[in-house]
């Protein structure tokens, strides 16, 4: 019965879509514009409303309750909207006074896209800082989730250390002697839980199959390296296009009609590569955002995340995701118009800004990757040199001891 009801609902919905949208392009464009509109509505109105609602207590003299907080939140949001629109109004009048006078009262067609242009510009600059760092961090983050080969990781040694540490903490917690009474028991319990979880994870990694251990880790690292290299090469090719072809500018790219021509010169394979690269850039930007020292404190933690931090994380992810279409189109990853009705920005037609942005992305990505690789090599060399020096020291000490002890026995 449930399957029949779902089938009937899907059939009616499909019939309405096919009768209302005669062409696939209209349906895809309309659906994308709706997604784009509601995401920005959440960013501009719903997230500030949620923050003000958590901080509000109601007006003085009103009855305490939910509706009093809703009224105060609505008034605060209205005042904030008027303040932001006034700032945008003054800024547009100062920067583009002729166009601003002609569109002085055109809120929907001029000021809302202009406001989103400012937000997306901030998001694009944030992506420029976070994505190269995230690409370099993706190797270590992914490597920590996979089982490494035995040449790169000694699971048995880590397992023994975890067992000893867990046993020591368990003995301290279960001991009734007076020497442990002054310790922070809550901190010791949390440390014991984390060590126990690490020990269970090490047990699962020790039980991994040889195929998963010796084949999975190198393949994933090669895929990440290939995605990074392809992304950097595409941006370098786009830099050359910007130098010799004016149509390579993001604002001057002509989009083929949806379904009539391919968005890539390599056909379906190129379109698939573009989709994979955009998803990879999105994941790298999130990893780089939370690994940066400025935003690492916003990382959600289990049972230790306030509602204000949750709202801040939602706003950050909305800003990054809203700027991702502009980011992909500026770097030349895709020629598809992902910007919707809000995609006509003046700075996208500025050659110097777009060219400098592409060059900075290539430079920062290369610098982060080189720094990561060289630091790993330096760490391994220092460790190997330290082991060599230690073994040499003990060998010489043994020789000296034998030389000193030999005359005594004579």
From TrEMBL:
It holds the Pfam family LMBR1. It is found in: Cell membrane; Endoplasmic reticulum membrane. The chain crosses the membrane at residues 31-53, 74-91, 111-130, 215-240, 260-290, 310-331, 351-377, 389-409. One of its GO terms (cellular component) is plasma membrane. One of its GO terms (biological process) is receptor-mediated endocytosis. The keyword Lyase does not apply. Keywords: Cell membrane, Endocytosis, Endoplasmic reticulum, Membrane, Receptor, Transmembrane, Transmembrane helix, Wnt signaling pathway. InterPro entries: LIMR, LMBR1-like_membr_prot. GO terms for molecular function: transmembrane signaling receptor activity. It is a multi-pass membrane protein. PANTHER family: LIPOCALIN-1 INTERACTING MEMBRANE RECEPTOR LIMR, PROTEIN LMBR1L. Belongs to the LIMR family. This is Limb development membrane protein 1 like. It comes from Electrophorus voltai. The lineage of its organism: Eukaryota, Metazoa, Chordata, Craniata, Vertebrata.
């Amino acid at each position: 019965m449930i399957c029949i009801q779902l089938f009937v609902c899907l059939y009616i919905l499909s019939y309405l879509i096919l009768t209302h949208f005669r062409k696939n392009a209209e349906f895809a464009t309309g659906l994308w514009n709706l997604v784009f509109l509601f995401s920005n509505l959440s960013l501009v109105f719903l997230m500030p409303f949620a923050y003000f609602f958590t901080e509000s207590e109601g007006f003085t003299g009103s009855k305490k309750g939910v509706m009093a907080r809703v009224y105060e939140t609505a008034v605060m949001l209205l005042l904030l909207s008027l303040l932001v629109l006034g700032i945008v109004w003054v800024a547009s009048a100062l920067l583009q006074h002729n166009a601003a006078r002609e569109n002085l009262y055109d809120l929907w067609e001029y000021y809302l896209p202009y406001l989103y242009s400012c937000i997306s510009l901030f998001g694009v600059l944030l992506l420029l800082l976070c994505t190269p760092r995230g690409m370099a961090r993706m190797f270590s983050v992914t490597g920590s989730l996979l089982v490494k080969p035995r040449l790169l990781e000694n699971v048995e040694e880590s397992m023994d250390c975890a067992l000893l540490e867990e046993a020591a903490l368990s003995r301290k917690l279960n001991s009734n002697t007076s020497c442990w009474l002054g310790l922070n028991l809550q901190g010791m319990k949390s440390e014991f839980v984390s060590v126990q979880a690490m020990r269970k994870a090490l047990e699962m990694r020790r039980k991994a199959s040889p195929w998963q251990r010796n084949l999975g880790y190198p393949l994933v690292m090669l895929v990440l390296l290939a995605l990074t290299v392809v992304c950097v090469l595409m941006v370098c090719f786009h830099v050359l296009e910007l130098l010799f072809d004016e149509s390579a500018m993001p604002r001057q790219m002509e989009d083929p009609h949806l379904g009539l021509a391919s968005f890539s010169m390599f056909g379906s394979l190129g379109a698939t590569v573009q989709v994979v690269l955009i998803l990879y850039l999105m994941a790298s930007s999130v990893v780089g955002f939370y690994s940066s020292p400025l935003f690492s404190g916003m990382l959600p933690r289990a049972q230790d995340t306030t509602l204000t931090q949750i709202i801040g994380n939602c706003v950050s992810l909305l800003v990054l995701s809203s700027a991702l279409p502009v980011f992909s189109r500026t770097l030349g990853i895709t020629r598809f118009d992902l910007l919707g009705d809000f995609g006509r920005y003046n700075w996208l037609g500025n050659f110097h800004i777009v060219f400098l942005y592409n060059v900075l992305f290539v430079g920062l990505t290369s610098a982060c990757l080189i720094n990561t690789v060289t630091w790993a090599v330096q760490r391994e060399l220092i460790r190997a040199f330290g082991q060599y020096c230690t073994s040499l020291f003990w060998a010489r000490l043994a020789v000296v001891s034998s030389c000193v002890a030999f005359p005594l026995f004579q």
